Amino acid sequence: MIRTRIKELLNSTAYGEEVTVKGWVKTFRNNQFLAVNDGSSISNIQVVVDFEHTDEQILKRLTTGAAVAIKGVLVASLGKGQRVEVKASAIEILGDSDPEKFPLQPKKHSLEFLREIAHLRFRTNTFNAVFKVRNALSFAVHRFFNERGFIYMHTPIITGSDAEGAGEMFKVSTLDFDHLPRLEDGTVNYKEDFFGKPTNLTVSGQLEGELAALAFGNIYTFGPTFRAENSNTTRHLAEFWMIEPEMAFYELQDNMDLAEELLKYVIRYALDNCTEEIEFLKNRLVEEEKSKPQQERSELDLIAKLNFCLENDFERLTYTEAIAILKRSKPNQKKQFKYLIEDWGADLQSEHERYLVEKHFKKPVILTDYPADIKAFYMRMNEPDEQGRKTVRAMDILFPGIGEIVGGSQREERYDKLVQRMEEMHIPTKDMDWFLDTRRYGSVPHSGFGLGFERLVLFITGMTNIRDVIPFPRTPKNAAF
Amino acid sequence: MIRTRIKELLNSTAYGEEVTVKGWVKTFRNNQFLAVNDGSSISNIQVVVDFEHTDEQILKRLTTGAAVAIKGVLVASLGKGQRVEVKASAIEILGDSDPEKFPLQPKKHSLEFLREIAHLRFRTNTFNAVFKVRNALSFAVHRFFNERGFIYMHTPIITGSDAEGAGEMFKVSTLDFDHLPRLEDGTVNYKEDFFGKPTNLTVSGQLEGELAALAFGNIYTFGPTFRAENSNTTRHLAEFWMIEPEMAFYELQDNMDLAEELLKYVIRYALDNCTEEIEFLKNRLVEEEKSKPQQERSELDLIAKLNFCLENDFERLTYTEAIAILKRSKPNQKKQFKYLIEDWGADLQSEHERYLVEKHFKKPVILTDYPADIKAFYMRMNEPDEQGRKTVRAMDILFPGIGEIVGGSQREERYDKLVQRMEEMHIPTKDMDWFLDTRRYGSVPHSGFGLGFERLVLFITGMTNIRDVIPFPRTPKNAAF
Q1: What region holds the Aminoacyl-transfer RNA synthetases class-II family profile domain (chains A, B) (predicted)?
Q2: Is A248 left (phi over 0), alpha (psi -120 to 50) or beta?
Q3: Is B241 within a domain?
């Protein structure tokens, strides 16, 4: 008999219908009430077991984590807490679960503990909700771009280019480390490596994305990117997914409009399509924050925070304006910032970004026109200001609790200016001839940005550690599973 | 003024409306007719240039590949070949293109040549069509699974497990190859590597997918996978994208049904949503095949072939039945196969698969229940047949011209049998404890398969080399761009 997914059963009114439920036992109370979950919903279906007429051996095996197939009749529930339940007529144990050994007992486990058993944490309510939201957000991203005629490009993961410039890279090789082929001068002979040269894992698909945008108009990537940085923080992963749209004929303003529209679209989509999960995550966060002192708790609950983002325009201002605000801010005056803001040109730290977003504007902020010296080579140079200071057409979107969630810019489309800047920043132009070709043959103004997908999931689920929003996190000294 | 995308203009009837077009010059005939393309459609918009009133310097710069912004009025075209055109009132050159140097002249280029300039081939009609179809297929895959409540899982790209068993792997490391840290016995000290142990690029997300399926029920992956095999063929890539659904409570039959449904869904979606592109690709293939002898040309054109797949059930038979057919087949009797089929147990070669699909059944074929010895450790063991031969619940889907497009199986969910098989195949069970946990705690029958995305794109676009359906192919000695 075909199984009915529990999510459908919970919404069903076909009382009296015979159904088959398959799933995993959450709890078994009083030798009578079996809570079964099949992953389709956070909510369990209650199965009423006929204690008298069920084999004792079966009853004993109805332990937390065991897999069961239940035949029975859907009935209105007399008990509290559920509208429907299944009156079991036959119970089959598909797979046992030794209650002495199964690590997920029906009690609260710490997120740290669950991270160690990431292969089993999917079976908890919290991670069911988190990965349902992650799934919905992925789909929302694709739908957003598809509706707007953007072309999804799979940019390469293995790259022979080391000029992406976004951070430390992982090497990819098939050489035998115990017998490295060497040239006469003793250096490694990469001609014998798989690709005939040194290769790395990509840190960004942007440069290849630009090639495609200058043919298709609007494109986006959505794939894994990598940073070999020894950052053990709650916001960094060595392997993470990134969304990078790139648009021909877009200037900085268009770029900001698109990014804001995308963020609002996917938040709206999650609220509409993951109502049960986000409600659960909201309550989880309230519980979690009860252990914190009052002033550290969120002012808004999760759903209120998401709605607040939808209802307000993101605040847009230049780096120069932001520096002025920060300079005269209370924490700067009172020397409470770890890095005091003194001069124009300073790179903004997390504490400064959070001050702007969480204290000063109290909403998402888009900062533009950063000093050229602290930004990448491919960003479009502005005319120097009246004081001769050089800025680029960058834009970063800062979110409460997250910091930078989007980083983007208008790109330098002028061949001469781009080459000059690459030379200043010691980027070898000879290896980048393919990139420069876009500026040689029909160059156009264009823009793009990168959205860190895990940071987005973090924001929308209200989780606080980025390792809890990707199935199997990769961090320094950890590549388990 | 906001630009209108050419795809919209070509469908517009707003005669007399002032519009702005931005794009790249394809051709400029008679100092009058400018064909402009912005990537939104294979078709160009014709711009009529007022020769008399346009600066000679501008006219000179209207070369193939140059980027332009045109203001003008949309009018009904008097010429043949287009319904509408734009009567230009102002022409701006956004980016020049030196006609002496621009590699894409308005003539036919070979696919081999275009592969060398993969960064520019996006601007050709063929690759515009190919990557539009690829984009549509990606979206169709996500939509198919989303409609069915499957959860999209991002399984890890960097893996510490080398037991995936699907092929040779790339190593991932941050060690300095010129100064490798070594233990006392001279071997490399991986404790100092980024992850504290040897790591590789994934060859499959299946094992992690199983972990998720045994919590969520139905999941799928869609991400890059890697093979470090020195295969220089038209069907192999070192980096390619794979779709891997995994379903709890699915047996082999359900698995086959889902795979067939998915393939038909995405073919239907491409036909419905890429009509113009597939029409173009159909004609391209007809042209290409004109240089071939009659008997090597396709019996059906591209669209007929796709419709044929939609209209017919895939032929399902066991390996054992297939061997019997192959043994008595004409090419086997006449010793025309390179590898003659003699005994049960032989691995099928491409020539055998093609015979079954293209000659014998003349439609897609699903082969099941392969000999255990030639399949992976995780496939579910059947009861031995009357002759004591051991088979596993594998299923491969074979497509005309492509060969294996899907490989899948019901998984071995029985702990003891799985461990026994791993030991027989020398797979270290101690590193795989996380995988075995799924069989310890609530194991259930489950199944899944892998669909090679590029092979799907190859089939639906009618292209013949897999390097032409991924933006930047990675193959032995090639990681350009």
Answers
A1: 131-471
A2: beta
A3: yes
